[in-house]
Amino acid sequence: MNTRMIVAASLLASLVPTSGVLAENEAAPERQPANLKELAPNTFVDLPNKLTDKPNWTEPVYAADAGILVAVVRKDRRSEPQTLHFDFNVGLWTAQDIETPSEVVGRPDRHVPPGVYDSKRRRVVYGGEWSYDPVARTWENLDVSTKLYGKTYPGAPDAKSANMVYDPVQDEILLFPYQGGANWDEWEDTRRLKGHLGTMVFSFKDRVWRRMELGREPIRQARTAVYNLYVRQWKLTEALAVLRRNSYADGLEKVKPEIIEMADAQRALANDTRNLATALAGRKGEDAYETAQFAEA
């Protein structure tokens, strides 16, 4: 088993302070670095942490071409961030004597995604915005933007607890958010936000983050048509609830014209729904997955 793979699996333990509380004047016992050449397979090893500023959490990124493991940390919000390299020979993290941009580890107004290795350019991309050359030990601002809902925003998507992966075939970075992102898709109709933004994709060609649309254009059109019917039904339901409340105060006769108008709108919606269902029922995709997408819609 590759020694570096084993080490990478046990690195978080090296950065998190050991459990237990020491007395004010009691020094932590000195520990020797683990012998990385003799690590047992499938075993976690607690590695010594001799950093001056002990971070509470980090997500290391392995730059495979250079054989360098990189982490960016800071002790707290007031501390300057540090760029760390893991020394595989002695099993210790070492802080690099370089200036690390503070935006790499977060901004006060938003969350920042973690890091990912770009194997084409041999760089580590942090936060979807900054590129780090582990050999030259230099940082570069990628000057990215995010396109959402017809608008362009500076920087990467606002996403919390996200994961990223680099796709060397398409030369893109995929971002899988868990929380945040200000998903406004249903806000106008439901006044509720979804729990996540959806899959985002970053293209190095124009350095823009966009939300990924799954499926070919016919499938996207079918989903949009179904969603538009849902919005029409939701608005009719809400309007009917309002009319029901008004009928108690104004009397049924006063709201009767609106009820008749709403009934016409409901019949039109039902007719459009039947027509769309008939159209989608006869659609065949290029494979079983696409055909199933039409059936689900």
Describe the structure.
It contains six helices and 14 strands. It has helices at residues 3-9, 12-15, 187-190, 217-250, 252-281, 288-296, and strands at 61-63, 68-73, 82-87, 92-95, 115-118, 123-126, 130-133, 138-141, 145-148, 151-154, 163-167, 172-176, 200-203, 208-211. Strands 10-9-14-13-12-11 form a six-stranded mixed sheet, with no helix packed on it. Strands 1-2-3-4 form a four-stranded antiparallel sheet, with no helix packed on it. Helix 4 packs antiparallel against helix 5 (252-281). The longest helix is centred in the last third of the chain and has 34 residues, at 217-250. The chain is elongated. The two termini are 47 Å apart.
Number of helices: 6
Largest sheet: 6 strands, mixed
Question: Which overall shape is indicated by the principal axes computed on the Cα atoms?
Answer: elongated
Radius of gyration: 27 Å
Query: How do the helices and strands follow one another from N- to C-terminus?
Result: HHEEEEEEEEEEEEHEEHHH
Helix content: 25-40%
Q: Trace the largest sheet across and list its strands.
A: 10-9-14-13-12-11
How many angstroms does the end-to-end distance come to? 47 Å
Low-confidence stretches: 1-25
Q: Overall pLDDT, averaged?
A: 77
Strand-residue fraction? 15-25%
Structural class: alpha+beta
Tally the beta strands. Answer: 14
Explain briefly what this protein structure is:
With 297 residues, the protein is an alpha+beta fold. The protein has helices spanning 3-9, 12-15, 187-190, 217-250, 252-281, 288-296, and strands spanning 61-63, 68-73, 82-87, 92-95, 115-118, 123-126, 130-133, 138-141, 145-148, 151-154, 163-167, 172-176, 200-203, 208-211. Strands 10-9-14-13-12-11 form a six-stranded mixed sheet, with no helix packed on it.
